[in-house]
Design a protein that fits this description.
about 5% helix; single chain
């Protein structure tokens, strides 16, 4: 999901590689060769490499361009009017992207920070990253002025969600395999520890106050909170998302109560107090309206 410059429309990502805008129309395609008949409504993951799988979405508030991290087609961009997305980058330092995942944009420079979860395994076999203990993930930066991609961090374990701080001085990075959130100060050469979580983190979204929502996409049947050494005690039955302040303090925990509605939460976007809930597998967008 992504808010556009009006903060009204939400863009929803589909497993078929198609993107749709709610209350409007924006249908960027990851490729001019996308077969609509084959791809629309796709459920066969073996065809993802043909149809695309948009994962990270973010509007540049200055230009209204939508940037897309597609698992198979790399870093893309499409204008406010929609259409076929333009491919910006597919490799860094001569190494092709294998699993482009999440992104965020520096609103001052237009630079795009994004993750490549592995240089060995594609999204359709993502469990291989976890089972093998793969440590080939990367944090990358695309410079729109030079059109170059810079590798900021290597050797990451399933790098996933990424979110810049409100002042763009640092970013948070999720490592799904290790259940960790890392903090990367822009300009540094290494990341530092930010938080240990009881479940695998997915996307990270910053709200207007500069706080961070971290979605806990899986773990209901995999791990219990007290089994994760160093995990923060969240004091809830079924934590599906956690909100942190910039110092790593827990502000709020979203409890799924083991219900179907909040099963497999991949992102939480806060807007004017309400929470928009995204999922990589559920066929709907959830909305929690707070009084």
């Amino acid at each position: 999901m992504a808010k556009d410059h009006t903060s009204v429309y939400l863009t929803v990502e589909f497993s078929s590689g198609k993107i749709q805008r709610k209350l409007g129309l924006i249908l960027p395609s990851p490729s001019p060769h996308r077969n609509k008949k084959l791809c629309d409504g796709l459920t066969n993951t073996n065809l993802e490499s043909i149809c695309g799988r948009p994962l990270g979405l973010k509007f540049n508030s200055a230009t209204c361009d939508l940037y897309i991290a597609d698992a198979y087609f790399g870093l893309l961009v499409v204008g406010p009017g929609g259409g076929v997305a333009k491919q910006l980058a597919t490799s860094a330092e001569g190494v092709p992207f294998k699993f482009t995942n999440a992104l965020d944009i520096d609103t001052q420079t237009g630079e795009v920070y994004f993750t490549d979860s592995s240089i060995l395994f594609q999204r359709r076999v993502y469990m291989s990253i976890i089972i093998s203990g793969d440590k080939t993930g990367r944090l990358l930066k695309y410079d729109p002025r030079t059109k170059n991609v810079h590798v900021l961090l290597k050797g990451l374990q399933f790098p996933n969600g990424v979110a810049l701080s409100k002042d763009n001085s640092f970013l948070l990075l999720a490592q799904s395999t290790t259940f960790e959130i890392l903090k990367f100060q822009l300009g540094d050469s290494k990341a530092t520890f930010f938080a240990q979580l009881p479940r695998s983190p997915d996307n990270i979204k910053r709200n207007a106050k500069g706080e961070f929502w971290v979605a806990l996409n899986s773990g209901r049947k995999i791990q219990l909170q007290n089994e994760i050494e160093g995990a923060k005690p969240l004091k809830t039955v079924d934590p599906v998302a956690v909100k942190f302040d910039e110092k790593g303090n827990v502000i709020e925990v979203l409890d799924g109560d083991y219900g179907k509605q909040l099963n497999s939460v991949s992102e939480v976007e806060e807007h004017e107090g309400s929470l928009w809930i995204g999922s990589a597998v559920q066929p709907y967008v959830g909305l929690i309206i707070k009084a």
